[in-house]
Amino acid sequence: MITHSAPIKKRSAEESIILTLSGASSIGVLPFAIYRIMESDWAVACLDLFAVLALGSLFVYVYRTHKTQLPGRILAFVSMFVVFVTVLLKGISQLMWIFPALTAVFFLLPANMAAIYSILILLSIGYVLREQLTIFLALEFYVTATATLLFSYAFSDRMRKQQQQLTELATCDPLTGAGNRRAMEQKLLEVIAFQRREQSLPVSLILMDLDNFKKVNDAYGHAKGDDILRVFVETIEKRIRSTDKLYRFGGEEFVIIADNTPLKEAIKLAEEFRFSIENEGWLAKHNITISVGTAKYAPHETAFEWLGRADRAMYQAKELGRNNCCVA
Question: Which one, of 34, 80, 15, 35, lies nearest residue 54 by Cα?
C-alpha cells in the first residue's frame, strides 16, 4: 500500500562514492596544506588549500542536493588538476599521487571517458617531466600507470553494468519491461512531494485496464496472455512521450504518470492510447481493447487518493461498455 508520507531520499551509489572521495580527500589534503604553510612553500600551499575548499564544497553540494553528474565531473577534473600542478611544481617526487587519482577518476566518470581523460593526463605528465625521467623510470612509470588504468577500467565497467542490471531488476516488470509497481509508487511519492512545493506545473495520471483479458487468458492459456501483455506494452511505448513512463500496476492494469500535463492534454493522450490498442491488428484479433481512467493531481491529495479517483473513472469506462475513456 502506498503510504501518505513523503519518501525518505536514499543515497545512491554515485552519491556515496562522491561523498566518500570528496570528504576523505579534503580531510587528507588539509595536513599537507598546513605543512606547506609552515614550510613557507606558498605555491603548493595555495594549491592544497584550493583542493581542500573545492573538495569540501563538492561534498556539501552533493550532500544537500543529491545531484551527482556535474559534481562527479568536477571532482575528477579537480583531482587530476591538483596532481598535475603538484607534479609540475615539485617534480618527479610527486608522481605517486597519480595512482589514487587514476583510480578515483574511474569511479567518477563513465569508463570510456575516464580512460581518455587518464591517457591525456599521463601523456601531459610525461611531457612535463621529459627532462627528469630516465628511460628506466619512464618505462617503470608508464607500465605501472597503464596497469592501474586497465585494472580500473575493467573494474569500473563491470561495476556499472552490474549496477544497471540490479536497477532494472528492482524497478522493471520482468515480463513486459515496463516499470514495476515499486517504481510506480516511488515515482508517485516524488511527484506529490514536488507538487506540494510547486503547484504551477500540472501532472496527470492515466490508468488503463485491458478489456476481455481474463477471457483470452482462460481460453488460450497464460502463454498467450503473456504475449498480449508484451504486445500491449510495445504498442503503448511506441506512442508514449519521452517525458512519461509506463508502469505495470498489477495484472492487466497499467499506469502512465504524465508530468507537466494538464487534464485536457491527458484526456487527448488517453484517447490516443485507446485508439492505438483498438487498431493494433494482433490485439484486435483477440478482441483486446482498454478502458481508461484519467485524473489530474489535486492539491494535498495522497497517492492512494489520486490512484483511487483514476481507478473509479476506469471502472466507469467499463460500465459504459468498455473500450472507453472516462475522467475523474
Answer: 80
